[in-house]
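User: Hey, quick favor. My workstation is busy. Could you predict this chain's structure for me?
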Amino acid sequence: MHPTSATVLDHLLRLPTPGLNAFLFNLPAAGLIAFLFNVMEEVLPIFASAAVVQGGLGLTPSQLAPSLSFGGVVLMVYALKGFPRLMRCVATWW
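Assistant: No problem, here it is.
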């Protein structure tokens, strides 16, 4: 009989692997940052530049550029400064 993925994960979590819990927390957290970057760069411009009758904001590229620039800077600062600090604080919970 083959073990299920739940039993394999339970077994891996019981192994004496230092840092595994921090890794398992960091992986989805880093994925969340990647998701936010994707939304900011791909979905927001399409939504913002669509016509108002189509449910968008009807912005021109020159109106959209400042918000994208600001959002990009904020996400980069968070990814470089905030995320590592958050992970150091949260990793001690494990």
